[in-house]
Design a protein that fits this description.
lyase, globular, 17 helices
Length: 323
């Protein structure tokens, strides 16, 4: 029942920026936390099924819940995790990773040094992608539901290197970009979480296009996905090396085009997306009340009735005027 209490707390807990935890940022290497006595949570099949269904439904409602994605990644990976462990053991780089178990985060990687690299190198383009999409490399070390040290590290490595696939494929952090990357991961790694995320992302894109048509706007996301998804699946199947076993830390200075050719990812996408376009925030009416920001219909309610609530007046008076 401790697993259920932990899951319930994760669902109720407020979402942290970049889904980081203090413990993840304090430790230099995530595997040190994984090896702490009492870290792992024994999770029988029925609890994994319950956690998987709950986290999947939660992600459909709010895809930005990184804590739920972490749980879903772990509990759904049991049928295929041994395959990824075998892939990591099969190469010299992978065996070196398994022995050293390095972490990829802002404490172990000198982002400023990577930014100083020449343009078009893998390290420079990765940092450029991070800055353009306003994301960071921290907060992806949770692996409490995995049974062994090796499976914990493989899940950690899978989550820490996810952004590299965005750079290799030229995909932003938009719903379309994330869905295309999940199709790629599904074809290459055969992880259930990738397939579930690809399906969920596709449904959200269809719904976004439906709303655009209702507003008499141009709907193009579904058409773009129909072109990009087969391309991503084809690339995922034809990757020349198992990506889970690549020591990316030794490839920062490698030209990105050369790395793509080495991995067999040099086929251009049928639809070119702006990978460095800053993500757009929610549009529409906004209202600040007691330090909270409301969009859409909640803002309409506050604009109409908020003056009856003293918090609305206090928030309006304390908020600085817009430039």
């Amino acid at each position: 029942m401790s697993v259920l209490r932990c899951a319930a707390h994760a669902v109720r807990a407020p979402r942290r920026a970049l889904h980081t935890s203090a413990r993840c940022l304090i430790d230099r290497h995530a595997h040190e936390e994984h090896e702490r006595p009492g870290y792992a949570l024994p999770t029988p099949f029925w609890e994994r099924a319950l956690l998987g269904v709950g986290s999947a439904l939660g992600l459909l409602v709010n895809p930005s819940r990184g804590d739920l994605l972490t749980v879903l990644t772990q509990v759904s990976s049991f049928p295929n995790i041994d395959r990824l462990v075998a892939q990591m053991r099969a190469t010299h780089e992978g065996r070196r990773l398994m022995a050293a178990r390095p972490s990829i985060n802002s404490r172990t990687i000198d982002l400023e040094a990577l930014w100083a690299l020449p343009d078009e190198t893998f390290g420079k383009e990765w940092v450029r992608w991070l800055r353009a999409n306003r994301v960071g490399p921290d907060g992806r070390c949770e692996a409490r539901h995995m049974p062994t040290l090796e499976t914990r590290y493989v899940i950690q490595r899978y989550r820490e290197t996810h952004d590299f696939y965005h750079v290799l494929l030229g995909m932003p952090t938009s719903t379309l970009g994330e869905t295309v990357v999940k199709y790629f991961e599904m074809a290459h790694m055969h992880l259930p979480v990738a397939a579930l995320s690809a399906v969920g992302g596709s449904l959200r894109l269809v719904n976004d296009d439906r709303r655009a048509l209702q507003r008499r706007e141009h709907a193009q996301l579904t058409a773009q996905l129909q072109q990009l998804a087969p391309w991503a699946v084809r690339l995922g199947r034809n990757v020349r090396l198992p990506l889970i076993g690549i020591e990316w830390e030794r490839r920062w200075e490698q030209p990105l085009a050369e790395l793509r050719t080495e991995l067999g990812l040099d086929e251009p996408p049928p639809v070119v997306l702006d990978v460095y376009q800053a993500p757009r925030f929610a549009s529409g009416a906004r209202t600040h009340v007691a330090g909270r920001r409301f969009y859409g219909w909640p803002s309409k309610v506050w604009e109409r009735h908020g003056h009856k609530d003293p918090r609305h007046a206090a928030s309006t008076e304390s908020r600085p005027a817009s430039p």
